[in-house]
């Protein structure tokens, strides 16, 4: 039997979420559509809590196996990405999200809010010395001194009060259990808590992005989408994996994939990186045909009694390259 497992959560956002673009320094733009890594993080945080770990416990810990076969704990304090989360990403097959068609919220809008910070004098060198010595009310004073000492930066956030979002994560549970903290975890242990994990999603993005779960599902050996067969999806799908049947119903956006590389995705036409509205009718949801170099998994209501009456869940699909992102 396959060790693939599908986690699905239908969530309502309380105010919105914050997912910022990697590498941004002063100005910090945000995204209206969360990337696959953020979707994985939402479920991973719930999974680790269900296994008895707090975020502080796992932020810098990693369990490795020595040549003798014994597990040992190593520290990786300098890692930007938690080693445990990196292992979870490596176990991930596909992940996706989309605005639920039945959402009555206003959609998602990214707002850039200006903030002023006081720059510390660690900015050494000729530029700093020249700026602090500038004569007040001169061109040099306004052009260089003020902007260096009191810079203004725009910080982004995605506002989406009461908006309903679908999250889906497909993972190789056999591979996942080998890297989770604590050791001795079996696939059957994941199966025992799978539905609780899906219901345990508490936030999207940063810790401020709190949410409530309306319905959830956990599927063992999830059904695949057949290659060259048509399917509908309101969740985003990689552009390299599908052929849209009506180009007028889709838009293309760039997100980072599971390897943190920039990739193009198809989304419903009312979606951009800074603004997104949920599809209002079935006719707003695009049809795709899956290419042979990719795999895709769908949420099937008949597999889960918890979502059997939830309209629109049949359009939740997650796709990706065979063998994962390159």
What are the defining features of this structure?
18 strands, globular, 326 residues, four-stranded antiparallel β-sheet, 20% helix, Alpha-Beta Plaits, 2 domains
Task: Tell me about this structure.
The strands form six sheets. The protein has a four-stranded antiparallel β-sheet with strand order 5-8-1-9. It has a four-stranded antiparallel β-sheet with strand order 2-7-6-15, with no helix packed on it. Strands 10-16-12 form a three-stranded antiparallel β-sheet, with no helix packed on it. The protein is α+β, with helices and mostly antiparallel strands and 326 residues long. Strand 3 and strand 4 form a beta hairpin. It has helices at residues 36-50, 55-58, 83-91, 126-132, 139-149, 173-177, 187-199, and strands spanning 4-13, 16-17, 61-65, 71-75, 92-99, 108-116, 152-159, 164-172, 211-220, 230-232, 237-238, 242-244, 250-256, 262-268, 275-276, 287-290, 294-298, 317-321. The protein folds into two domains: 4-107 and 160-321, 2-Layer Sandwich (Alpha-Beta Plaits); 117-151, no CATH class. Mean pLDDT is 84; it is low at 58-63 and 74-80. It has seven helices and 18 strands. Helices cover 20% and strands 32% of the residues.
């Amino acid at each position: 039997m396959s060790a693939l497992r599908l986690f699905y959560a239908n969530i309502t956002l309380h105010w919105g979420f914050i997912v910022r673009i990697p590498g941004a320094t002063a100005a910090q733009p945000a995204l209206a559509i969360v990337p696959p890594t953020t979707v994985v993080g939402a479920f991973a945080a719930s999974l680790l809590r269900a296994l008895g770990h707090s975020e502080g416990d796992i932020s810098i810990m990693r369990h490795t196996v020595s040549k003798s076969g014994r597990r040992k704990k190593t520290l990786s304090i300098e890692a930007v990405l938690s080693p445990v989360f990196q292992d979870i990403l490596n176990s991930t097959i596909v992940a996706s999200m989309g605005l639920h068609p039945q959402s009555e919220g206003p959609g998602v809008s990214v707002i850039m809010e200006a903030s002023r910070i006081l720059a510390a004098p660690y900015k050494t060198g000729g530029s700093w010395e020249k700026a602090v010595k500038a004569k007040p009310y001169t061109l040099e004073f306004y052009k260089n001194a003020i902007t260096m000492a009191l810079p203004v930066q725009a910080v982004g956030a995605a506002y989406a009060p009461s908006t309903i979002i679908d999250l889906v994560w497909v993972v190789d549970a056999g591979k996942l259990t080998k890297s989770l903290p604590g050791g001795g975890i079996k696939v059957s242990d994941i199966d025992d808590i799978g539905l609780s994990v899906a219901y345990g999603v508490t936030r999207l993005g940063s810790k401020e992005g709190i949410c409530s779960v309306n319905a959830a599902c956990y599927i063992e050996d999830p059904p695949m989408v057949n290659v060259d067969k048509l399917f509908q999806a309101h969740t985003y799908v990689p552009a390299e994996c599908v052929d849209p049947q009506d180009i007028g119903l889709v838009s293309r956006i760039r997100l980072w994939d599971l390897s943190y590389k920039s990739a193009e995705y198809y989304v419903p036409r009312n979606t951009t990186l800074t603004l997104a509205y949920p599809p209002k009718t079935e006719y707003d949801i695009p049809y795709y045909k899956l290419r042979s170099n990719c795999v895709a998994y769908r949420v099937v209501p008949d597999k889960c009694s918890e979502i059997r009456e939830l309209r629109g869940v049949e359009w939740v699909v997650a796709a990706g390259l065979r063998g994962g992102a390159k």
